[in-house]
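Morning F.,

Quick status update on the modeling queue. The single chain you submitted on Monday has been processed. Sequence for confirmation:
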Amino acid sequence: PSPHNLMFLLRYYRETGEAGALEMVKKTLDQMYRGGMYDHIGFGFSRYATDEKWLVPHFEKMLYDNALLAYTYLEAYQVSNEIQYANVAEQIFTYVLRDLTDPKGGFYSAEDADSEGVEGKYYVWTPEEVKEVLGTEIGDLVCAYYHITKEGNFEGKSIPHISGRSLDSFADTAGMTSEAWQIQLEEARQRLFQHREQRIRPHKDDKILTAWNGLMIAALAKGAKVLQNEEYREAAEKAVHF
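Structure tokens below.
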């Protein structure tokens, strides 16, 4: 679905109070984030999913998609006051400011889907690789949480996703508090991200397009206001000056 349509539904909800509109948006945003089109290790959204379960993406990441989705998740946070939507927006900004930002302030257009001539190679995992990085105990938990299996879900390897997962229920099953599991999971994610950084990255399309930059500037400006984050305001201003 187009982020424009989701934003329209959010505004319709604001004007009418029609609960069904908000529930439709929340369900869509939840499933998009939980699925494989979201990069759970390095953040940011791929361009689109190729299946009805939001599992297998076209792995290309576009600036305009991430700008519009960050804006939409922020609006969902404003109307629902549910913190997970703010968290997704912050993660998108982390990705863009880290990987799609020129030192002079402009934003690059995209990252390709493939590396070494193989689509998705940069993003997929095997249980053995995860446990090599994290050790067996934590590795087994992380594989279970992200659905990383021996059989795989994409050409023999696994796209991390959390469809059908609840952090609270998973932590309870693993015999720990939600807070403890969240800390362990974030530590594991950072270690997996650092390991992934050693792979050959997809090509970065470093064109800087005014229209797409305008979308990201708007998203960052909204993020600065909604989340009271000066870093986002400064990044938006730097891009405007560029």
